[in-house]
Amino acid sequence: MATKKNLVVIGNGMVGHKFLERMLAKDDGQEWSLTTFCEEPRVAYDRVNLSGFFSGKTAADLTLVQPGFYQENNINIHIGDKANHIDRAAKTITSDNGVTIAYDKLVLATGSFPFVPPIPGKDVEGTFVYRTIEDLEAMSAYAKQCKVGVVVGGGLLGLECANALKNMGLKTHVVEFAPRLMPVQVDGAGGLILKDKIQELDVTVHTSKSTTAIVSENGKVHKMQFADGTELQTDMIVFSAGIRPRDELAKSCDLSVGDRGGIVINEFCQTSDPDIYAIGECALHDGRIYGLVAPGYTMAAIAADNICQPQSNSFTGADMSTKLKLMGVDVASFGDGFAKTEGAREVAIATHSRAPIKNW
User: Fold this and answer.
1) Which contiguous run of DSSP H or E holds residue 265?
2) Pick from 322, 296, 339: nearest CA to 157
């Protein structure tokens, strides 16, 4: 029997796990021996629905991995161990725990990290990011001594985070630098409607707000100061102001990265090294980072297909339309939401709200 080739996946988030499922479906362990590094203390879980943690869901409820899945499918998993070095010449991976593994093909599914604006006071006690189950556990424990909470960022994840703070019994505020909520998905009119809907749920929304400082008292968060001279008192702050691709491993081994970050990939999800692939939020395709899970799943499938059969499938971009329920409010985005395409036509549907709903 021929010796199997080694395929190593760095990252065991939603996209990394989806890739492994696809590889099993394509190869079923016939040609490839699979290994994955999982930096977090638990296997892949549903990060999209993290807010459910505050409404009673447990880590077990959120998991994407059936018990025994890796063992039954002979996938070697290193839980709680971070891959920290790639030697492209020797084709090996080294981890924090001192594990060194050779690879024939390597997949980077390192995801992203939360962007925290460089605001004075951003690290004082009572400030958090909203990314992992450990983050949520820390927030939940700290919130027991709080009455008011603020989310910095009014995008998709920021509004989910606001819902989490509200579920913890806090008087909740959302602070957004842009002039509207969900600025990537909706236009000005849609933003006004969404703001009204969110505020009807007793969450105060502050748009066009630039935070200049976080002021502490007795070493803990006390208030936020804004560029317009106003202030907002709060007991805790959660940053949800966007993401940045985790491309440090790629940089350290001289793979091509974008000027603003992200591991450059071609249509086959290959990096500048044809034996290394990148998928999900760490990958930069045609100058774009995709911050939604659906394009990451598409990349995972395409990378697996091409590893099993080179150049058999291509990534040409992804549909960014979304339909979500945020805090009980339905929000949909499709097509060219800002009418930038030549020949785009604007259709406005008047409602009883103070602004029309616009779709193109």
Assistant:
1) strand 263-265
2) 322
Alpha-carbon span 143 to 183, nearest angstrom? 28
- Does residue 154 lie within any of the structural domains? yes
How many residues are recorded in the chain?
Answer: 360
- Write out the residue range of the structural domain in which residue 47 sits: 5-113+243-308
Contacts of 9 (CB under 8 A, 6+ apart): 16, 19, 20, 34, 35, 36, 37, 106, 107, 109
pLDDT computed for residue 186 by the predictor: 84
What is the dihedral sign for C-alpha 8, 114, 183, 147?
positive
Could you report how far apart the first and last alpha carbons of the chain are, in Å? Answer: 58
What pLDDT does residue 326 have?
A: 64
- How many domains in the chain? 2
pLDDT tens for each residue of 138-185? 999 999 999 999 999 998 889 989 988 998 899 999 999 999 998 878
Q: Is 27 helix (H, G, I), strand (E, B) or coil?
A: helix
Q: What pLDDT was estimated at residue 318? A: 83
> Which of 356, 297, 250 minimizes the C-alpha distance to 21?
297
Residue 284 has what pLDDT? 98
Same-domain check for residues 77 and 167: no
* Cβ atoms 215, 162 nearer than 8 A: no
How many CB atoms are located within 10 Å of the residue 136 CB?
A: 21
The confidence score (pLDDT) of residue 323 equals: 65
Amino acid at site 211: T
Q: CA 213 to CA 236: how far, in whole Å?
A: 14
With CA atoms as reference, report the closest residue to 34 among 1, 3, 64, 73. 73
Q: What is the pLDDT of residue 359?
A: 45
Q: What is the CATH number of the domain that holds 42?
A: 3.50.50.60
- Beta strand pairing call for 283-285 and 276-278: unpaired
- The ranges of the chain with pLDDT < 50 are 353, 356-360
Q: Number of C-alpha atoms within 13 angstroms, CB side, residue 241?
A: 20
CA proximity to 173, closest of 130, 227, 212, 224: 224
- Helix (H) or strand (E) run with residue 194 in it: helix 188-200
For position 347, what pLDDT does the model report? 67
User: Residue 45 in contact with residue 18, Cβ under 8 Å?
Assistant: no
Q: Does residue 270 belong to any structural domain of this protein?
A: yes
